[in-house]
Specification:
alpha+beta; Rossmann fold; 2 helices; single chain; four-stranded mixed β-sheet; 80 residues
């Protein structure tokens, strides 16, 4: 499984700004492949599915960018 993480900042203040380009990219990728961010796990929104024959988890940490490492580390352990 591939863990694909898009970095951004939570909240409306950063919605559709350069600070959330990682979230915007993942939203586009999810839409193109029919995936939805349905799961909340390790303080992140997660969309799971298959892209190009590979199982993936698209991850949008719901922490500020400088704290995203904690969420990513927890998810990495979850998907081992």
């Amino acid at each position: 499984m591939w863990l694909i993480v898009g970095l951004g900042n939570p909240g409306e203040k950063y919605d559709r700004t350069r600070h959330n380009i990682g979230f915007i990219c993942l939203d586009t990728l999810a839409r193109r492949h029919g995936l939805e961010f349905r799961t909340k796990r390790a303080n992140s929104l997660v969309a799971e599915g298959t892209i190009a024959g590979q199982r993936v988890a698209l991850v949008k940490p719901q922490t500020y960018m400088n704290e995203s490492g904690r969420a990513v580390s927890a998810l990495r352990s979850w998907y081992k």
